[in-house]
Specification:
316 residues; alpha/beta; Nucleotidyltransferase, domain 5; six-stranded mixed β-sheet; 12 helices; 49% helix; elongated
Length: 316
């Protein structure tokens, strides 16, 4: 940095007295030596010639224009952006920029955002719509660091009966007809696994990709068996097999007896190997998290809303 300052001092006086062609040549020399672009080099040279008397030999730090540049968007727009981002489920800037108009229209239609109330206004809306994906990600960085809208793994390997259940691995032959489903639970625990919270049981057909989802109060066997019963009754064709992970909510006598009574083939994946259930893991992200987000749900009212939500998503 000191070398650049000395170079700037050396050329500053000559630059102030030079004509147009000479200034261009001086700028070429400064940019070649310092690596600055021409605009920044010109700014530093002109700044040197404007110093007060007595400060010619003072050491002056180079201006970082990224830090001194005025903010383009208002504080109100940034706060509303954070709200829209949280409502949208914490999606990235590229998705948020594309969906911004639809999200704002929906929030306005349901009176969650009213022009003239709070921090929201027509000017704020125009600012949000004009934001680029990179700008959105930059302004949302503090919010993401403070409130990471991501789920946690709640799978606890169940040792009961595990060795007696056939293992189905990634790469095994896919069934030639519908009826074999991968099954997994998604925990709606928010940022902590403490306490009791709602879970969504997700079923995905390996052959057709057909999906059925149902919310349960917790992962107790009675709720998982009830969800599986609803699932079998709702599927428009015969369920021939179910493939689970190694969670204790699945590897237990209650569910195995339930499957045996209905003559449903029962398999499991390998511990800590998500590729064995790649299809359901993809659906967990693109379907369950898309509509259910990453928030914590743990009340009776929220369970009712989730049940209604999944009924509509299943129909869709």
């Amino acid at each position: 940095m000191n070398t650049r300052i000395e170079i700037t001092k050396k050329y500053a006086t000559a630059y102030a007295k030079a004509g147009r062609q000479q200034k261009s040549a001086i700028l070429d020399a400064v940019t070649d030596i310092t690596g600055w672009n021409r605009d920044h080099a010109r700014q530093q040279l002109m700044r040197r010639t404007r110093q007060p008397k007595g400060r010619a030999n003072a050491t002056v730090a180079v201006i970082d224009r990224r830090k001194t540049k005025a903010r383009k968007y208002s504080y109100d727009a940034i706060k509303i952006l954070q709200y829209v981002w949280s409502v949208a489920g914490g999606i990235c800037g590229k998705y948020l920029a594309q969906a911004m108009v639809d999200l704002l229209n929906s929030l306005e239609a349901h009176n969650h955002l009213v022009p003239g109330q709070g921090r929201y206004s027509t000017n704020v809306r125009d600012e949000l719509v004009s934001m680029s994906p990179a700008t959105i990600d930059r302004y949302l960085a503090p919010a993401r660091a403070r409130d990471t809208l991501r789920g946690k793994s709640a799978t606890k390997p169940g040792t009961l009966l595990r060795n007696s259940i056939q293992v189905r691995k990634a790469g095994d032959e896919v069934e030639a007809e519908p009826g074999f489903f991968e099954v997994d639970t998604v925990a709606h625990c928010g940022p902590t696994l403490k306490g009791e919270f709602i879970r969504s049981v997700n079923y995905t057909d390996m052959h057709t990709g057909w999906v059925y989802t149902r919310a349960v109060k917790n992962n107790a066997a009675v709720h998982i068996v009830a969800a599986c019963t609803h699932f079998v009754e709702a599927v428009p064709y015969l369920v021939t097999g179910l493939d689970f992970d190694n969670g204790s909510e699945f590897i237990n006598h209650d569910l195995i007896d339930w499957a045996a009574q209905r003559k449903i083939f029962f398999t499991r994946g390998r511990p800590y190997t998500k590729n064995d259930q790649a299809t359901i893991e993809s659906k967990n992200n693109h379907l369950v998290r898309r509509y259910g987000f990453y928030y914590r749900y743990d009340t009776t009212t929220e369970l009712g809303l989730m049940t209604t939500l999944w009924a509509l998503v299943n129909d869709q």
